């Protein structure tokens, strides 16, 4: 057989080396390209929401700049008059909007904290916000769980849905903690 | 073997790796709701 | 050198003034009111008197903006968000000034003045960057330059009549600048550079919006710059974390191009494969997997797939590289054409090997010449077969001057040369077209007619290494390998190299299972 790196044995040797040398993995079996954060089955163009070669998420809608009429750019005229952002003033709908639209951002944590204050709880496994239906006590209640009727916030259909549920307390997130230093924003 | 020029490129690349561009570097300044990236729990929606 | 006395102070004053005016509510729509007033000030200060003064003004402004950024970046106490806001406060104003000066340079119809000014400014920013890169070395920061380039690009691609008239020249100016600042020249800027050329607005303009695909060639050049930079490190499998990160970023960008602009990858596949290191199998497969969006590829795993009957194999692919011109020196090309036409002199074949060898350090063969020779001989063969009213098949490709060359190379080259030769052939196994079909037949013919098992082993190696990497896999690669293992004519499973070790046997069985 071909004794050097250009035959079958050479290929096998390279593959075996790649099993232990991480710098060879990228070349030998290569990467699973479906894990790079791009929806390769998307019927729409990917480039228009491509955020960066270094990030495995597409752009958030609010980050995509468009050339809008200059009249829309009012911030410079009103910024001193804008009320500071205080989440405890806002309705649930806006809090859910901020939570779902700001993944990986302090604002997501802040919205989560405010929802917690209003007795919503985030179910870590179901990945959904839940609250007790008002005026409806749980049918069963133990130290570890309870069972009853709860409102689930359905983010797909953007509405609260009442459901009976077996709720285990250890599946609920504790009070969300915000980072010790919030970045400066004169409006907040 | 890598020539001197390539070794220089590796060194410069390594230094640049420690201050990568951020997506907000290509976006308009957001005065009202700037990005404030931070680690969030893995069970929170990211997208 | 030798800035006129007082120019530095004037420039600093003017820049500060402009930044304040830009951020004032009284600046007016798109800063036009502020701009009118500011241009008066520039005149009064004599900045616009001569070309030399304008150049110096821009250079000093750029340096001041850059210095401000370095000072801000060195302030450890502030958050990254605050530091960036501070930098962008001045940078964005400077960019707006440049954009307005370009837009209003000369009269509306005079595009030449506008583009000249843009080229001047881009050249100045690039020059300051390169000097900064050389002086500061590992302390170099990409932020100010990245911000200037991307925001200026976005500003100059606003939907305005004046800008639409000069859009192609604007794109050309930026592409020239990015080529000057390619990673090989400014490696400290490489990450920002890739971010710039993969920005959604840049890709949109270069590949989607510019009519008649006029931006494609320039964009291809930028990708070639990127592949050339990565090549030495990937060739040596030198993937430290930063290089691996850059490689992964490159794959992301290629995936976007494969999804959105597969025809672009199809048209330039030859030029890309010429500069991608042979061991970058997945990245190369990604490019070779591209096919035109209006094409429906038959399932390569269809039982009894009659590739010969597909209508697509009659048509050649578009190859926007002048590969014939890459056959050098001209005397060699002349001898090649002569041999292809007359099958003489026979000494041409015996001299082929030495013509393909190289004295370049780290490279025993001239890979671009090898690739060009293979593609040229193959395309000439296809033409020759068509003029006889035939289509390429195992019988029609045989006994020709073209196949003489291929068989001679397969026999005469050493293992490295043969590997590179077979790689050049396998690089043409793509979507259904006349090249894919011809070169698939050629590989199978070389396998069947091989006079040593080493040739068959290396053909198998070249196909196998492309199959064992993660997806995607080019259609032509799949149908060739399936044919090789299924067709009893090739007696594939009888060869010793298939059974020489248990791991190899398992590997072949596994690949064959997934193919069949």
Layout of strands and helices, then pairs:
The complex is a heterotrimer of chains A (188), B (47) and C (516).
Chain A: H1 8-20, H2 22-25, H3 75-78, H4 92-101, H5 106-117, E1 121-123, E2 128-132, E3 140-141, E4 145-154, E5 159-168
Antiparallel strand pairs in A: 1-2, 2-4, 3-4, 4-5
Chain B: H1 4-17
Chain C: H1 7-23, H2 32-44, H3 51-73, H4 80-103, H5 111-136, H6 143-155, H7 161-165, H8 167-180, H9 190-197, H10 200-209, H11 216-235, H12 241-260, H13 262-267, H14 269-275, H15 281-288, H16 330-342, H17 347-356, H18 367-387, H19 401-412, H20 415-426, H21 434-449, H22 453-467, H23 475-486, H24 496-499, H25 502-515
Question: If you had to describe this structure to a student in words, what would you say it looks like?
Answer:
The complex is a heterotrimer of chains A (188), B (47) and C (516). Chain A is α+β, with helices and mostly antiparallel strands. Chain A has helices at 8-20, 22-25, 75-78, 92-101, 106-117, and strands at 121-123, 128-132, 140-141, 145-154, 159-168. In chain A, helix 4 (92-101) runs antiparallel to helix 5. The termini of chain A are far apart. Chain B has 47 residues and is mostly helical. With 516 residues, chain C is mostly helical. Chain C has helices at 7-23, 32-44, 51-73, 80-103, 111-136, 143-155, 161-165, 167-180, 190-197, 200-209, 216-235, 241-260, 262-267, 269-275, 281-288, 330-342, 347-356, 367-387, 401-412, 415-426, 434-449, 453-467, 475-486, 496-499, 502-515. The interface between A and B is medium-sized, with 35 and 23 residues.
């Amino acid at each position: 057989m071909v004794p050097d790196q250009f035959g079958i044995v050479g290929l096998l040797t390279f593959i075996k080396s790649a099993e232990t040398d991480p710098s060879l993995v990228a070349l030998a079996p290569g990467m699973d390209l479906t894990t790079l954060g791009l929806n390769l089955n998307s019927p729409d163009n990917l480039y228009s929401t491509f955020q960066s070669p270094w990030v495995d998420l597409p752009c958030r809608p609010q980050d995509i700049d468009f050339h809008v009429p200059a009249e829309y750019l009012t911030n410079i005229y009103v910024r001193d008059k804008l009320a500071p952002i205080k989440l405890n003033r806002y309705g649930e709908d806006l809090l859910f909007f901020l939570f779902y639209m700001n993944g990986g951002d302090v604002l997501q944590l802040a919205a989560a904290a405010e929802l917690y204050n209003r007795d919503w709880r985030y179910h870590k496994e179901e990945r959904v916000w839940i609250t007790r239906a008002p005026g409806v006590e749980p049918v069963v209640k133990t130290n570890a769980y309870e069972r009853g009727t709860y409102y689930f916030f359905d983010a797909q259909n953007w509405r609260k849905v009442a459901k009976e549920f077996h709720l285990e307390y250890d599946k609920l997130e504790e009070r969300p903690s915000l980072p010790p230093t919030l970045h400066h924003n004169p409006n907040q | 073997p890598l020539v001197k020029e390539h070794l220089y490129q590796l060194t410069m690349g390594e230094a640049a790796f420690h201050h990568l561009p951020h997506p907000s570097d290509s976006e308009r300044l957001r005065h009202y709701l700037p990005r404030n990236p931070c680690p969030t729990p893995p069970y929170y929606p990211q997208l | 050198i030798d800035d006129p006395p007082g120019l530095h102070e004037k420039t600093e004053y003017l820049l500060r003034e402009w930044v304040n005016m830009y951020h004032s509510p009284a600046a007016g729509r798109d800063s036009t009111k502020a701009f009118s007033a500011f241009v008066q000030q520039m005149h009064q200060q004599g900045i616009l008197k001569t070309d030399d003064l304008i150049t110096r003004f821009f250079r000093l402004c750029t340096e001041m903006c850059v210095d401000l950024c370095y000072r801000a970046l060195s302030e450890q106490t502030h958050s990254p968000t605050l530091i960036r806001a501070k930098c962008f406060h001045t940078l964005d104003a400077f960019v707006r000034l440049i954009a307005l000066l370009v837009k209003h340079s000369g009269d509306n119809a005079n595009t030449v003045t506008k583009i000249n000014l843009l080229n001047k400014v881009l050249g100045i920013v690039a020059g300051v960057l390169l000097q900064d890169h050389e002086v500061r070395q590992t302390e170099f920061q990409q932020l100010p330059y990245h911000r200037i380039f991307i925001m200026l690009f976005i500003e100059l691609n606003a939907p305005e009549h004046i800008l639409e008239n000069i859009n192609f020249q604007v794109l050309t100016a930026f592409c020239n600048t990015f080529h000057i600042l390619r990673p090989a020249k400014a490696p400290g800027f490489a990450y920002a550079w890739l971010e710039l050329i993969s920005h959604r607005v840049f890709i949109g303009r270069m590949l989607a919006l510019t009519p008649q695909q006029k931006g494609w060639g320039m964009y291809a050049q930028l990708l070639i710059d990127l592949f050339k930079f990565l090549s030495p490190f990937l060739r040596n499998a030198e993937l430290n974390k930063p290089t691996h990160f850059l490689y992964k970023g490159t794959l992301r960008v290629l995936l976007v191009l494969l999804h959105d602009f597969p025809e672009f990858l199809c048209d330039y596949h030859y030029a890309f494969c010429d500069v991608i290191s042979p061991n970058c199998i997945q990245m190369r497969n990604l490019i070779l997997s591209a096919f035109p969006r209006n094409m429906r590829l038959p399932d390569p795993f269809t039982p009894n797939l009659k590739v010969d009957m597909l209508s697509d194999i009659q048509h050649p692919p578009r190859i926007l590289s002048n590969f014939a011109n890459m056959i050098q020196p001209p005397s060699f090309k002349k001898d090649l054409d002569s041999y292809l036409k007359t099958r003489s002199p026979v000494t041409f074949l015996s001299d082929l090997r030495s013509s393909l060898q190289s004295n370049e350090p780290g490279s025993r063969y001239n890979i671009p010449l090898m690739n060009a020779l293979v593609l040229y001989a193959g395309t000439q063969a296809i033409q020759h077969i068509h003029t006889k009213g035939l289509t390429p098949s195992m019988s029609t490709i045989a006994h020709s001057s073209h196949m003489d060359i291929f068989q001679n190379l397969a026999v005469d080259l050493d293992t490295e040369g043969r590997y590179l030769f077979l790689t050049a052939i396998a690089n043409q196994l793509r979507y259904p077209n006349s090249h894919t079909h011809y070169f698939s037949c050629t590989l199978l013919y070389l396998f069947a007619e091989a006079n040593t098992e080493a040739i068959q082993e290396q053909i198998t190696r070249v196909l196998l290494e492309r199959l064992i990497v993660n997806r995607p896999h080019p259609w032509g690669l799949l149908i060739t390998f399936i044919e090789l293992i299924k067709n009893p004519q090739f007696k594939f499973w009888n060869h010793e190299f298939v059974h020489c070790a248990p791991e190899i046997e398992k590997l072949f069985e596994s690949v064959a299972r997934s193919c069949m």
